[in-house]
Write a structure and sequence with these properties.
The complex is a heterodimer of chains A (153) and B (83).
Chain A: H1 5-24, E1 29-35, E2 38-44, H2 57-74, E3 81-84, H3 87-109, E4 113-117, H4 120-132, E5 136-140, E6 147-151
Parallel strand pairs in A: 2-3
Antiparallel strand pairs in A: 1-2, 4-6, 5-6
Chain B: H1 5-14, E1 24-29, E2 35-41, H2 46-50, H3 55-67, E3 73-79
Parallel strand pairs in B: 2-3
Antiparallel strand pairs in B: 1-2
The chains are: A alpha+beta (153), B alpha+beta (83).
């Protein structure tokens, strides 16, 4: 038995997902981690696109189900994050780069820069990247068209 | 590549309900309308597999259609009383 509840969450989700991979005969390894107070589970392997889907639609569905599988066992709502085939990791890098480029532009022009509409998760990644590059950003607009504005110093 | 869709769905549903032994999935080949997967669960679990605003049912359908490789698969949920 695992002591840490977040590690236990990862184990439950990994068992659930591994069972699915076995049934549909997909090769993938399960990796578990704990990051920023959340259980992280990743399915790693080649040719996993079908389990990511357009815009990560299938990945989001699998994450939703894995969280429910955890809740069934623990009785608590889970904030577990799932990644498949490095999709979220790649998205995170792209968003971080986008935030960093916007910071460069704001520093060069002295004017604020607005980015395209993003989900709350995507905006959080951009805000973090902007803060790491030494500027401040805010969100503007209404969901689902809310977007990040990078402000001049 | 015919995949055991009913078995995959049974696994996914059994893992999120309180009465996994009561989960059954029956596969029906519709005429021209593709495959129908009929999921039966314990009455106490029907709300759980449908989810708030149908969210969990939608997630289950999304995953099953993805592993069906684009074949249109319908998924219906009922409890053991046939509701």
């Amino acid at each position: 038995m695992t002591e840490n509840p977040l590690e236990a969450e990862g184990d439950i989700a990994a068992d659930y997902l591994e069972g699915l991979l076995d049934i549909i005969d997909v090769d993938g390894d399960l990796e578990m981690d704990v990051e920023n107070g959340r259980a992280m589970v990743a399915i790693v392997g080649e040719d996993l696109y079908e389990l990511v889907g357009d815009g990560g639609e299938v990945l989001d569905a699998l994450q939703d189900l894995a969280r429910l599988a955890v809740m069934r066992e623990t009785g608590h709502r889970s904030r577990l994050m799932l990644d498949v085939g490095g999709y979220r990791a790649a998205l995170r890098k792209e968003l971080t780069d986008q935030g960093t480029r916007a910071v460069d532009e704001v520093k060069r022009t002295g004017e604020s820069v607005s980015l395209p509409p993003m989900t709350p998760f995507e905006r959080k990644v951009v805000h973090d990247a902007v803060a790491a590059a030494g500027l401040v950003s805010e969100s503007s607009g209404e969901e689902p068209n809310r977007y990040v504005v990078v402000l001049p110093a | 590549m015919a995949r055991p869709l009913a078995e995959a769905l049974e696994h996914l549903v059994s893992g999120i309900v309180d009465h996994p032994d009561d989960v059954t999935v029956r596969e029906k080949q519709g005429r021209g309308r593709g495959t129908l997967l009929k999921v039966t669960v314990h009455p106490e679990d029907l709300g759980r597999v449908i989810g708030r605003a149908g969210r969990t049912a939608k997630s289950l359908r999304t995953v099953i259609n993805a592993i069906a490789g684009g074949r249109g698969v319908r998924v219906d949920f009922v409890d053991v009383n046939g509701r």
